[in-house]
Amino acid sequence: MPLVMQKHEMPEQDANVRRNNFDEVALGYTEELALAEANRCLHCKVPHCRKGCPVDIDIPAFIAKIKEGDFEGANAKIKEASSLPAICGRVCPQENQCEKYCVMGIKGEPVGIGRLERFVADYCMQNCEEKIEKTVKDDAQKVAIIGSGPAGLACAGDLAKKGYQVTIFEALHTAGGVLSYGIPEFRLPKDKVVKPEIDNLRKMGVKIEVNSVVGKLFTVDELMQEFNFDAVFIATGAGLPHFMNIPGENLNGVYSSNEFLTRCNLMKAYRFPEYATPINVGKKVAVVGGGNVAMDSARTALRLGAEKVYIVYRRSEKELPARREEVEHAKQEGIEFKLLNNPVAILGDEKGYVKAIRCIKMELGEPDASGRRRPVEIPNSEFDIDVDTVVIAIGQGPNPLIQSTTPDMQTNKRGNIIADEETGKTTKEGVFAGGDIVTGAATVILAMGAGKKAAKAIDEYLIEKRNK
Amino acid sequence: MFKILNKKVLHENILQFTLEAPLIARKAEPGQFVVLRVNEYGERVPLTIADFNREKGTIDIIFMVIGASTTVLASLNEGDSILDLVGPLGKKTDIRPDMGTVVCIGGGIGVAPIYPIARKMKQVGNHVITIMGAKNKDILILKDEMEKISDEVIVTTDDGSYGIKGFVTTALQQLIDKGIDIAEVVAIGPVIMMKTVADTTRPYNIKTIVSLNPIMVDGTGMCGGCRVQVGDETKFACVDGPEFDGHLVDFVNLMERQRMYRPKEEIEKDHICRLAKKVEEMEEK
Fold first, then answer.
1. Which domains occur in chain B, in start order?
2. Residues of A with CB below 8 A from B37's CB?
3. Which end of chain B is more exposed for a tag (fewer CB within 10 A), N or C?
4. What pTM did the predictor assign?
């Protein structure tokens, strides 16, 4: 059989249709496509793909199961390492991870590992009776996990498997962190994918306390001393939105991407007035930034009814930090990219609403510390773009609530918690941290990896503690 | 779920709920707020904690029925539950024993959040003068409670139907003119009231604290929707506040931002009204 050099395309909704709905864009492989794609795997003696996976999934083994038609077995294989395959299959940047190292990628395209992972997870959710049993033991040591995003969920899953009594404290009214409030429905369906994964944790015996803001309702010390938790894992993510500090940022119609996406995803503003939370989009929207969150915001704005949506980014296309696939999807849907442009002010009308964004043209200079060529302003090149809404999607920092109420736990100058990369150990005894709160805003899978590493270290810590 | 233990109508459209919330009651302090969501369809609504009882494990909220969310909230009765309640959020009021004479000003519904502040100001040993303002005598709330915990209570009404005819600033100016040594003013009420209070005290350099209630979503510093201009800085009211130095707040920007969803609120109110009508029709059948 000749080798197929190209990845099998994944069916997706037509761009002209999907830009008007919130249904999932990518539809996933059929069985036939999955088998065909799996057959592209060469089963290398040394599987380089695995070294690109932050949670070390046995990729060749699960693909082998697909080849055999044993999709349930493939799912079980993935689940040995990752508790959230339906999510990772969708949102992992595979092109920079497993697929980057695939031998097939040298002369052609790498095997679609992410697409196969997604297929297997979806197949099993629909067709297999996955029996989840309670693993938590009622007399086991207690672990508090703060934050129910990817890091918290991964850590909770691994600790529950080992029998510990795990309680997750979530500040919002719905569990999932960025999976629920941040990543849009059309990229990560909430009821179909996120909720079942979280329900599985509940079935294992994990308690999830929503509406619980640690730092306010209780401090980390209170959790340990008054509520008798033996260890704490802090996974509060990167929840503090950055603004640009340019004139006009407090005008009506300027949103942080966090607010814009939260209103839409968590509060379901796209179903207003059935759901009471409103969102103002208007006819023209500028999204500032070039990452995945910027793409999500732009494509959300389009689906909310905006006629024209711009991405305003200060570097060139090559430097866009968003996944290639997301950029392509955005372009197909009609998002206009205003590259090498940097906002200098937002202009308002007499009632305090946004009417335009003023940008200055940029050119690329010498490489900076990040290795990317630094954007430099071209003097006197300012121009205005008429818009009603501006979404600032230039990144997020750490929320200081927990750090400021836990004085004996050290943070760095950016406010991130200082924790060991391999174990998540902080400077405070019994307290671990991982994910974006330690590294700064990164990806779902890296946060999951940190959650798993911390679970291992917490297990070791608790074994030592009970043997004392 | 958070049970409504007591519902009290303070005025035709001003209600007081006592909610079962032992964990929040355990930590609540004057000046802090909660965010609630009535049901799956509801908005996240921030409301200042009007009272709390650590022993009974309850907190009180007082609200005026103005928009769709408060209309739905008001339709609940004793024994019903609120789906989500999160708090205590925001920073507590800075209350110290040796402040001296403190003037606590509550305008309209703002009397509710000023109550626990005035009470604690008095408890720790300060001399508390309370100024309560209302449109007219009928919608004056918590007057008896305020009298119990203040050294002096002055009431103003816009129409003169009770107390001094005028605004809270009329009474405040009188205190200043009398030469009373005011250590601090804490004012909570409509934005325009807080602005005029700050304008009144500014020339005399009297420290003035105001509690802001901009539009917010999560209430934990995540969305940035509640940002307010305070001096040269942009602050998030939910985590940096809700109380700020009244002399530094950009009230004009705050008022503009509060109006952001006005047209949408009408649509939502209409939606709720039509829903209620539909339910009525179905019940009749």
1. 2-89 (2.40.30.10), 107-259 (3.40.50.80)
2. 173
3. C
4. 0.92
